[in-house]
Design brief:
Length: about 300
């Protein structure tokens, strides 16, 4: 039997950071991971965090629950037939309801080959404290992702004071009393905790059914290509003009005086720039609600 984990969490919460960290630990234990990544948006940026020797299936454009369980089934089937792996990690899009995504992996086709260990949710703790500022739909999805976790990472703890950290844990425990809640920074979780999960039995059919009713959030993505360089300040000034319903931006931006386009990440008011040693295409994906109305820089 191969262990299957579903990584859930809203856009930009730290799923990819956790994935990178878990893959490293699996390798140290001589366990072979396979990954299904479900990226909302047109460019598979996150897949670059997965090294080339790891079997990776990507579902671009849409999320596991929207594209239908058949597609996920087909991907798992292909992995099972063609690849040698011990552990399967499915990173859902930040816009997916975790139970719906889990529903997609329960297939009689491979029931005897997969041991579904459960949902690991990464929550942005800073965003948790500011959740009143979210639209009701996003807030409800955020709560659902926390409520259905079997293991919950209260991530981005480095951004909070001690009393805020305690408040987050207390409040999250109130929403989900059965999950083990771990305080993390950069999604650093010990693989032992994942291994100890015995979650499959706790997911009832009723849960899955109720999750399907009206809980889906319709996000869309916008691809922006850059034909010239900007200063970091110009980009950050542009970011400040964006509506609060833009949740996530990531990709590569050409910066004046810097050789290669820099890796740019934005999530909930926080911007991150990292130098890139190879020349990546100068494009970003922006994810949010009503992104068609977003003013693109220089337009
Ligand atoms: N300060 C801080 N930043 C973090 C932490 N974890 C992740 N980040 C940053 O948050 C941003 C998003 O992290 P990712 O790991 O890409 O998040 P994700 O959930 O995979 O994002 P999507 O794939 O867009 O849903 C990046 O800029 C990370 O460097 C943390 O614990 N503290």
């Amino acid at each position: 039997m191969k262990d299957v984990y579903l990584f859930s969490g809203f856009l930009g919460s730290g799923k990819t950071s956790m994935l990178t960290n878990v893959i490293k630990q699996l390798k140290e234990r001589n366990l072979k991971p396979a990954v299904i990544m479900n990226e909302l948006g047109k460019l598979p940026f996150d897949s670059q965090t997965v090294e080339e020797d790891i079997p990776l299936k990507e579902m671009l454009e849409g999320c596991i629950c929207c594209s239908g369980s058949e597609k996920t089934e087909a991907q798992i089937q292909t992995l099972l037939l063609n690849e040698d792996f011990d552990v399967l990690i499915i990173e859902t899009t930040g816009a997916a309801h975790p139970v719906e995504a889990l529903d997609a992996v329960y297939s009689p086709l491979f029931a005897d080959q997969l041991n579904i260990k459960g949902i690991v949710t990464v929550a942005d703790s800073k965003l948790w404290l500011e959740r009143e500022s979210l639209t009701p739909q996003v807030r409800s999805l955020f709560l659902e992702q926390i409520r259905h976790a079997h293991l919950l990472l209260a991530n981005k703890m480095d951004l909070l004071s001690e009393s805020e950290q305690a408040k987050v844990i207390f409040e999250m425990q109130g929403i989900n009393s059965h999950a083990f809640i771990l305080q993390t920074t950069n999604g650093q979780v010990s693989y032992k905790l994942l291994e100890n999960l015995q979650a499959t039995s706790r997911i009832s059919k009723d849960d899955i059914h109720s999750a399907k009713i009206g809980k889906h959030l319709h996000l869309s993505s916008l691809l922006i290509e850059f034909n010239k360089s900007y200063t970091q300040q110009q980009i950050e000034d542009w970011i400040k003009t964006l509506p609060s319903t833009v949740y996530r931006i990531k990709g590569y931006i050409p910066v004046e005086g810097v050789k290669n386009p820099m890796l740019f990440q934005y999530a909930y008011g926080l911007v991150q720039w990292l130098p890139e040693y190879i020349k990546m295409p100068a494009k970003v994906v922006l994810i949010g609600e009503n992104v068609d109305e977003v003013k693109v820089i220089d337009e």
